[in-house]
Amino acid sequence: MLTAIWEIFLQIIAEMLIEFGFGSVGESLRQRSRAHPVVAGVGVALLGGLAGALTSVIWPTRIFRPGPLPGTSLLVSPLITGLVMDRYGHWRESKGVGRSQVATFWGGALFALSMALVRFVWVGA
Q1: What is the pLDDT of residues 90-124, one digit of tens each?
Q2: Which sign does the torsion angle of CA 30, 12, 117, 124 carry?
Q3: Would you give the end-to-end CA distance of the chain in angstroms?
Q4: What range defines the domain where residue 94 resides?
Q5: What is the pTM assigned to this prediction?
Q6: Is residue 29 part of a domain?
Q7: Closest-CA residue to 49 (of 22, 79, 11, 86)
Q8: DSSP 99
Q9: How many domains does the chain have?
Q10: How does 8-39 read in b/e, with b if 16+ C-beta sit within 10 Å?
Q11: Which contiguous run of DSSP H or E holds residue 112?
Q12: HSE (side-chain half, CA atoms, 13 Å) at 32
């Protein structure tokens, strides 16, 4: 259980850093009001994979012992992270700021799945 909570925490922190750091650069470079969903999805998945690789290099071992069902984080983490990022996107919209691709349920879940999958493969099952 602690493994899933820690992984969700890492994914949310990584997404927030990308949202704040790269979000402003992306907004200024974007020529259309909304990117094509497939292209944006590929970009979000690549960023999630990169975040998973970086966290695997920084922390190359499992944080906690695996639970009875290895790989549970591949399902639970994306769902919870997607919900958190969707709420964050709604909060941004209420403040009059546009929502990025990562600040949606599907963007957050895809980022978290990519990050968890890379960590699962690199760090071990």
Answers
A1: 998 899 887 777 888 998 999 999 998 998 888 87
A2: positive
A3: 16
A4: 2-22+37-123
A5: 0.72
A6: no
A7: 11
A8: P
A9: 1
A10: bebbbebbbebbeeebeebeeeeeeeebeeee
A11: helix 105-123
A12: 6
